[in-house]
Every structure is written in C-alpha cells, then in structure tokens.
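Now read this:
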Amino acid sequence: MTRRGFEILQGSCEAASTLETLLKWRGGSMAYLNFAIDNPNLYKLMFDVPLTGAPEDEVILRGGFAGLLDKVTLQMSGRGLCGRELERQACASARRFWFALHGLASLLIAGRASILMGDVEELLDDLLEHVAPT
C-alpha cells in the first residue's frame, strides 16, 4: 500500500510539473499538497506508520525521495557544479525542500495550517520563495 501511495504521489507530481516553466516547482508542489489533502489516510500511512525494518521499507522510502533528488541534481548541474559538490548541494537542497513541503502538508491534513495565517496558495508561494531548489 505504501509503495502504491508513493507511485501515485510521484505520478501526480510529474503530471502537474511546471519545472520547465517560469512557475518552476509550483505545479508539482501543489500536486503534492493536493495528494496529501485528498488522501490523508494514505499520506499518513506513507509517512507516519513506523517501518517494519524490512529491507523493502528502505527501498520504498528512497524511491520516494529519488525522483525529487534527480530533478534537483539536474537543475543544479546547469550551474556548473559537478561530482561530489553537486551531489552534496543537490541532496541538501532537496532535503530542505521536502522537509518544508512535508511539514506544510502535515499541517494542512491536521487542520492546523490556519495558525500560519494564509491560504494554501499563499503558504506554498512563501515556502517556494524560501526553500525551493534553485
């Protein structure tokens, strides 16, 4: 079930991607948030249920992050970075971005985003302005 959740989430983000446009990370990010809001139980299963310790768990989680990391790495490679430095910076940037996006999704699911005083669009725009990979 968890694996299928990651497949659906990744497919949704890919289909909504605006990475090659002026909107950059906005389309995929909004798809991520909409997936979390529309599928709160599946999202919680994917991220909140303790892992069993099976090797498959690690594969599923890494697969969920790998697509984002690949896109960040590709984008950053255009800045002239390469090798270990590209890998290090891309991983750090992808982590920060996912931490923030996952946090916002979790607040939205829990009905606690109102404390941030903004609607989903405003909150996402603020997040993208400060932590989207560049």
